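Subject: Sanity check before I submit

Could someone independently write out the structure tokens for this chain? I want to compare against mine line by line before I put it in a report. The sequence has 243 residues.
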Amino acid sequence: MDGELRVSERPTALVIDDEKQIRKLLRIVLEEEGYRVLESESGRQGLSNIALRRPDVVLLDLGLPDIDGLAVLKRLREWTHVPVLILSVRDSPEDKVAALDAGADDYVTKPFESTELSARLRAIQRRAPYGTEDACFEAGQLTIDFNSHTVKVKGQEVKLTPTEYALLKVLALHSGKVVTHRQLLREVWGPNVEEQSQYLRVYMTHLRKKIEVPEAAERLLRTESGIGYRLVLPADRKKKSEQ
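---
Independent answer below. Compare away.
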């Protein structure tokens, strides 16, 4: 179980690179841009960190010691849309096209200028589905700021664990629609946990206790029996009352 944290912490960047000096340089650049930095020195470790830590952006080297970076990219794109910036010494058009076709958001060759890298990071974060143009989500008395990772109920900030926040974020991004058990498990825990529905029941119970308003006429989080869960929008309630 992950511990409590305030979800208003800085955005997280994960660096997947086996070269220690590159990781050190990237940490300096990223921290200056306001990121909290995580590091992985192999592809397997990187995939595990993406599933468990859910970074806001990934900087991925292609020349990893265990799994080629392109294979890492293809595997993570099976279950997450996290923005990925490729950092590689490979500079052929074929390598760049292959990475972009596999789901990379941008490609920067080594060596790189820190100012260019920062600008490209800002660009792909703006294009992310939960970027600045859709930074806030509101449903009833619930407010989520995707940029600051802040969750408020009735104007008061609440504490969520990383897993609770990840679940809420997925439901909010698909608000009004049923999100299946399998999809939630894949997006929050990764592709190897799709049958472990007991995880969902436990965390959804915790999440409900933290974001539901007891005196509200209807719950925000609705269970669709045998299928999944849905975050109900105020418009859904209005339509129901008019029927």
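---
OP: Matches mine. For the report I'm noting this point. Residues 1-8, 236-243 have pLDDT under 50 and may be disordered.
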